Amino acid sequence: MKYQYTVGIDLGGTNTAFGIADASGKIVSKGTMPTTGHESVAAYVLALNDRIAPLMEQVGKGNIAGVGIGAPNGNYFTGKIEFAPNLPWSGVIPLAQMVSDALGLKAWLTNDAKAAAIGEMTYGAARGMNDFVMVTLGTGLGSGIVSNGKMIYGHDGLAGELGHIIAERNGRKCNCGRKGCLERYASATGIVLTAEEWLAERKDATTLQDANGKLTARMIQEAAFAGDTFAIALYDYTARILGQSLADVVALTSPEAIIFFGGLANAGPLLLEPLQKYLEYDLLSIYQRKVKLLLSQLADADAAILGACAMAWE
Amino acid sequence: MKYQYTVGIDLGGTNTAFGIADASGKIVSKGTMPTTGHESVAAYVLALNDRIAPLMEQVGKGNIAGVGIGAPNGNYFTGKIEFAPNLPWSGVIPLAQMVSDALGLKAWLTNDAKAAAIGEMTYGAARGMNDFVMVTLGTGLGSGIVSNGKMIYGHDGLAGELGHIIAERNGRKCNCGRKGCLERYASATGIVLTAEEWLAERKDATTLQDANGKLTARMIQEAAFAGDTFAIALYDYTARILGQSLADVVALTSPEAIIFFGGLANAGPLLLEPLQKYLEYDLLSIYQRKVKLLLSQLADADAAILGACAMAWE
Q: For residue B169, what are the contacts with CB-CB under 8 A and spacing of at least 6?
């Protein structure tokens, strides 16, 4: 192999994480810096270069194949971030080109969930798989669908919006302007919304009652791990809605596995055990007992960097 | 090009159509024979060979690249028909191998909707497209999803069951044993079921009242073309349900176009105009005004043969 390393950049709404990994997925150096507080995108990219350039020197720039960037609303085809609601910069930002110019390396951009899928395919739970679905359960629900060994970008680079398929017709209002989107139910935000609705309607005894109004998904997870039946039922409900939607995804793409990543997935069996049950129940019989539900095999802290690094090997 | 022709076989529940086409999609010879009435699958394949062999002689067997077969429940990966409920033969039938042995040519098998998708990609409305969805609206609803220029078969060859995504939770009972599958609404069968439900519940003046109990999709189409508002409303309802489900398919695969084929699609604007309206309404904004709704460009009578012929070029 000509090159030994790639650079990965994970651009989040608050922080940007970056690192350099070798072909085996070992991160040889990494760092973080704030995404916010820069005068402009150009100033952000300069600051990023100031941090990454010394790391590149350490491994020798000539040994680096390129740079992968995972960013909200990142479009692989254009290399641009397009109208990302949670970033300090508005409109369309040609970030891949800007980073490429600054670092003097080829750069590729996609959204965070697709970068995670490529990371799993290259270094994680999807190694050797040609057909799988990556689901990231964070503030929202992101996804990357891989078929025939290739990421499905769609004709415009915007495929994979599993978070915005309709889970509940005329259901909860979504930030996208429509109603009932899956991510309003199956995400950290979604499970909190469910908890708030239930606390308003039901009289279950639960330790979460005290936190009503300032509930977080982490509190729900801790309560569930501590045996709070109300919190456990919240996971069960979330799994039911997610299972129904995933049964439809399986009917369309027949994946070998569905791989979960992100805050809500950290609950592990609390989510995956009921999910397996509901998914099997909802599946068309030809798919039953064939789809593996797996957790990401990339360490939480490094997964986003590794996903971005993996893009640059493609 | 070494070869000039391919053989296509369209195996239906009642009849089998076959033909030989050149690389431009011109059918140079064709024929039909009954699917039923043979002592065994082996006898059927022998009879088929008796009919196709003379056609192959005419163009010179050495000029033929291979044989494509479209069949219900056909699995591309195994070359087998698997538990097809509407064929005279039960269980698993290694049809690709049997046809290959009989005709002395390589043979490929897939289901009819995927063959139709390959036909559109090779000769029809999807020429030059890398990302599109084929929807066949016949007795049931079949589909073939193409991404990155490749058919999505899934890990087991069984992807593309759009007819069995859930359109209506706890809705109409489906032959698959579940409830609310899209094909129970959006298909020739589905529109008749809607008509029967409405005739039982509503008092609209309609010429279809007389045919209640022996309604067909063709009758509904003829009534709608003649201006029957009840029949037109049946198409509108069918389009609404179909539009909702297709909005989810677009969110997952972001196709350039959705191409329709089959009896119900023959209604043309009766179905496609309301469908366009509902789909646009249901789409996430990033996809709006970008997805073309097209009718198949393959002549009805030849489309299935051409789809099968196209497979053998792949």
A: A244, B179, B180
